[in-house]
Amino acid sequence: MKWSKALGIPAAAMAAVASYDLLQRRHALLRNFPVVGHGRYLLEAVGPELRQYITTGNDEERPFTRDQRRWVYASSKLVNNTFGFGTDNDVEYTDGYTIIKHRTFSETPPSAAPHAGEELRIPSAKILGGARGRAKAFRPQSIVNISAMSFGSLSGAAVSALNRGAAASGCLHNTGEGGLSRYHRNGADLIFQIGTAYFGCRDEEGRFDLARLKAVVESAPVRAIEIKLSQGAKPGLGGLLPGAKVTPEIAEIRGIPEGRDCVSPSRHTTFHDVDSMLDWIELIAHETGLPVGIKSAVGDMAFWQNLVDAMCNSDRGVDFVTIDGGEGGTGAAPLVFTDAVSLPFRSGFARVYKLFTEAGLSDDVTFIGAGKLGLPDNAVVAMALGCDMVNIAREPMLAIGCIQAQKCHTDRCPTGVATQNPWLERGLDVELKSVRAANYIRALRRDIFKLAEACGVAHPGLITPTDVEVADGNRRAITLAEMYGYQPGWGLPGASDREEITRLMLGVAAAEGGEGSPGARTVP
């Protein structure tokens, strides 16, 4: 009797499901195969997890492979992040495989310190805003910085953890276009980003408000301002924050209705061409004293040619240029935009850099790269192509708990990183995750420094485009310089910057292992 009751309950439930399946009209599969048809939807739902942890190889998954994620996770937790028994990459047959060429001898002596590079911040070879004489020009103390991710796109706990991690590791933290929140005020120096909707610096009508911009940058440790023209995840589209993420707090910060999809315009309304953009940039720089730059993905090159021409023919200009690759993307976007709009970082950056260099402007601009550059080999390629710094986004998300579930746009991030759900957010321990973010950033800089040392130079910015080759399996290999048409000397800072950054890296105190030397343990 007891067994019949126990079996009767699930049998009745299955009968109810079968009846519903037979009568519903939305799914032909379920009408034809009641009950068992649900198995297909279950497998579809858990397919990404099955592939991620069971069926795919170490180097197959995208956007980050299992090996890449393992390196980030291990580095953030200060556990063994080395790999044994040689590479499992298909070096012999992979087209476009990157090879960094080490040097046998070098005039730059390797550091003998036991923990060389572990706490080294690696300053930028250029002074940000120095070429244009900005009142608050400065030399960024880290070539690795946290890229633009807005509060709203990320949870408050995630932003707090990243900001604390940035402060502990001595790097800059970009606010993203969503405004400057209380979560950005945990100690790190900031880059304030202005997007097309002017969140945080707009009036009641949604128009740019200079007074509000000045007030917000004076209220926090803002070191520079970045004008976002476009981004790698959705070039040609404005920002998109699903209504599920628009909480009362976010609505107040941004000045938008609560609970409704927040869609930024695809283009700025304060300026309409390069000439008016430069006028606006100079106004902001004059009123705030801060360096001002632009961020953009690369598509039609006419804009960049017009910008270079305008800077050559006037005393106006940008202090820095952030190039975002089409492979980047923490934001929600239509699939066709993430897959097919804008150039990948390497080709996009090389085209823009060439225009500035041919015009004699490259020494006057700090170049920043973004788009999957939080891995040492990718970062070194960016530096070899001419980047002075790199911005990283998804990799720090991994460091603070992201498992690449790819649910950022749904408000159901299982680890509390990219959600406004209080229950999910509570799982992210800010204090612990901030330490992991800092650990990862230090590990990334250490490996970049070690690669520079292997190439025989004192600073990663001194790695040349001839120090890196791109191989097509065993058939042939060409240098980055050959691939992108670089002339001798391109990709490097100017002579005076090279001399100064070498002096800073080696330093008078190098013999003693003091602060400023490659072997120094500069604890924040």
From TrEMBL:
- Report the EC code(s) recorded for this entry: 1.4.7.1
Please report which protein family the annotation says this sequence is part of: Belongs to the glutamate synthase family.
This one is known as: Ferredoxin-dependent glutamate synthase
Q: Which GO terms describe its molecular function?
A: glutamate synthase (ferredoxin) activity
Please list the residue ranges annotated as the Glutamate synthase domain.
140-457
Question: Would I find Oxidoreductase among this entry's keywords?
Answer: yes
PANTHER family according to UniProt = ARCHAEAL-TYPE GLUTAMATE SYNTHASE [NADPH]
Q: Which CDD domains match?
A: GltS_FMN (cd02808)
Please provide the record's keywords in A-Z order: Oxidoreductase
The organism of origin for this protein: Rhodococcus aetherivorans
Q: Does the keyword Lyase apply?
A: no
